[in-house]
Amino acid sequence: MYWYTTQEFTVKWGNSYSLSFSTANGIRQGGILSPYLYNLYTDDLSANLRDTGIGCHIHDGCINSLSYADDMVLLAPTADALQDLINVCQVYAAKHKIVYNTTKTECMTTKLLVVGNTLQKKFSYCSREVKMELFRSHCYSIYCNSLGSRYKVATITRLKVCHNDILKRLLRLPRWCSSSLAFARNGVNNLDVIRRHSVFSLRSRVELSTNSIITSVRQSSAYVCGPIQQRWLGLLFVQNVG
């Protein structure tokens, strides 16, 4: 810490320099240690967010924030849950005199219904080829769906219906027409195929990874016998009965 306790600064204005002065707060921009020091400083915030129990649950763990240096992503299942996490951040910021830059803050939603309405309203007069490319771009990336292990069958059913309706509305097809036929004729994947591709991709990367942390997780009983592995196997392998 000698580097920080003895540092002095000057301000350059044109060809003139101010008198040197010291500073007792902040970290060096672009410094090698800066991200690590900032992570240590805000570690309590991560703990406070984790203690809420709000977020994306994977097995017995809860993930609701991803941070590196001064960038943070909050993950929440609903708008109310997100507001609860933001409230935790506001309390921490007030206590530690941190100011969030709202001009660099974005709120992203992965609700398929919102995506579908946007595509239908803005691109209804585009060609079929353009519509299908938009469908692939916006309706294939269902973030973190491969990590789900606690969802109910009814939830997946509602998601499938929503996914099917988006395609039909985008192509102006009647709701009673065959969804399977619509997907097949237009060369796009339905939700089941998207989920299988996502799970296969993630599972393959986990199984082939040489990273020490991922290797430890892969060898744990929580991974081998846990619910997420059962979900994966259920999606990837279909058993023949009789």
TrEMBL record:
What's the superkingdom here? Eukaryota
Q: Name one Pfam family in it.
A: RVT_1
Which positions fall inside the Reverse transcriptase domain? 1-119
Instruction: List the GO biological process terms.
Output: DNA biosynthetic process
Listed name of the protein: Reverse transcriptase domain-containing protein
